[in-house]
Amino acid sequence: MGKTAEAIAEGVSIASAAARLAVRNHILVETIAHDETFELARVAPFAHDALISLAEEQEAAAALAKRQRKKAWGKFTDPDGTHDYRDRDMRNLRKRYRQYIGVAKELRRIADDPHAVRTLVEQARDAAWGDVEANLERRLNVEGMRPDLDPDYEQMRAARMQSLRLVDLPRLAAHRRRAGADDEVTDAAPTARASGLDLSELDA
């Protein structure tokens, strides 16, 4: 029973983490994609349903283990595959059944506990805000980075300049041609030009 209790506790921990992830994603979608304000009272029912859904998955797994146990009873031949159980597997299948049922019962208990649901939602909210904060910080670091603070500036500068010459300037030239602007590249010019820009200046 000690090992069964440990397995149930581990299963509840894993399922709770899955529920927090689902609630976190729900909060992100509602607050960012749908521009809704966060309200615990509105998120709590979703958290409750997520826990119940996970409990139902455990109950379905328990039912399957029970059917497999009945089918395995009295069979002593060699199995044909991984899930072709035999009489010698009865003990393990019975143990799995108890574990699945135990996890399902605990998840339903948590779902019916308003305080536990509130704690789950608050943890999911903190995780969601943490994701938002990390994304904003990364974006600000990129947009606010100065050349003297970027250790990869010199290495990446050549790639950026090449991209500018091969992609951005030809695109700009095509846009100007479509707009009717005169951007002919003359062979007589001392330096190669595109869209009125001296490309040699980009190598500085």
Description:
With 204 residues, the protein is an all-alpha fold. It has 2 domains: 2-143, no CATH class; 150-203, no CATH class. Helices cover 70% and strands 2% of the residues. The chain contains 5 helices and 2 strands. The chain has helices spanning 2-33, 40-72, 90-111, 114-143, 153-178, and strands at 193-194, 197-198. The chain has a two-stranded antiparallel sheet. A hairpin with a 2-residue loop joins strand 1 and strand 2 (197-198). Helix 1 (2-33) packs across helix 2 and helix 1 (2-33) crosses helix 4. The longest helix is centred in the N-terminal third of the chain and has 33 residues, at 40-72. It starts with a helix and ends in a 6-residue tail after the last strand. Residues 185-195 have low confidence and may be disordered.
